UniProtKB/TrEMBL annotation, chains A, B:
Residues 4-73 form the HTH merR-type domain. InterPro entries: DNA-bd_dom_put_sf, MerR-type_HTH_dom, MerR_fam. It holds the Pfam family MerR_1. PROSITE patterns: HTH_MERR_2 (PS50937). Gene3D superfamilies: 1.10.1660.10. This is Helix-turn-helix domain-containing protein. Keywords: DNA-binding. The keyword DNA-binding applies.
DNA sequence: ATAAAACCTGTAGTCACTACAGCTTCAAGC
DNA sequence: GCTTGAAGCTGTAGTGACTACAGGTTTTAT
């Protein structure tokens, strides 16, 4: 019979948390494991593999829904992989957009900080800069 | 008497939403405006300024809590601005870390996608790559 | 045998909104 | 002045992806 381990060991081995594992089970991302005589979850290496898959995908920024789709896809190994490819491609586009946006924020914060002459709040450029409209993409009317 | 406008006009002028404005009021980021005879909110230019300040700060990634601190600071204009400066500085560090992290993800997704030979799911590198450990920073034991 | 650590379920809290239900009020056209 | 539809009101629930807690049971180590 297969070697099994507790939820605590699985959390430790995977670098995640006990609560997260139980949460993934309730939303169906992890299959329900067997229980021992005392009703405690006993995991196998297959659970570990699945959990690591989910954690990696989350680390890459995939939503739970996207991961669910990938798992569903992997249950039909003879289908073409265009869909899986598409999920990753969309994610890549999204990551690139987030990088671009964050770089704008970085520049804006640098601008904000460099203009601060460390006086009192009344003359603080940080607060002032936020009240004004720097590299702002928002559609609003100009400040008075 | 001052010119006032409705919550809808304020939303439109600021590029935000009616619900968001009411939400900011309930959590104390916007002061409660006067009401007209029919109990509807009537805003002034000062409300608009405050809202734009909050929206800009949110766009820059500041948390509601950080914005609350900045607003509190701005009520004491004679204090030194070191604290406001510090909030922006922490935010800049955070933004830079997020950028660095996203760039790792980008590289990983590129790697994942470029190795896909567009066959069937069984041989799909996208799913396979997620199951394995690329540029992964997570502390877990190696896959079998 | 006992005590501490780990586990269980179920529920509530987090953040920053967003959506909805079921009302009241306002503005424009006739 | 009347009607109608848009806009406003309050209060509550839902979102995503967990996280924390209360109050119990089981396992493990001594």
């Amino acid at each position: 019979m297969e070697r099994t381990f507790s939820i605590g060991k699985l959390a430790e081995a995977s670098g995640s948390k006990v609560e997260t594992i139980r949460y993934y089970e309730t939303i169906g991302l992890l299959p329900e494991p067997e229980r021992n005589a005392g009703n405690q979850r006993r995991y196998t290496a297959r659970h570990y593999d699945r959990l690591v898959f989910v954690l990696h995908a989350r680390d890459l920024g995939l939503s739970i829904e996207a991961i669910r789709q990938l798992i569903d896809l992997s249950k039909h190994p003879d289908l073409p992989c265009a869909e899986a490819d598409e999920i990753a491609r969309r994610q890549l586009l999204d990551v690139r957009q987030r990088i671009a946006r964050l770089k704008l924020l970085e520049a804006e914060l640098e601008r904000t900080l460099s203009s601060c002459s460390h006086g009192t709040i009344a003359e603080c450029k940080v607060i002032e800069a936020l009240a004004q409209c720097g590299a702002c993409e928002r559609h609003h009317r100009p400040t008075r």
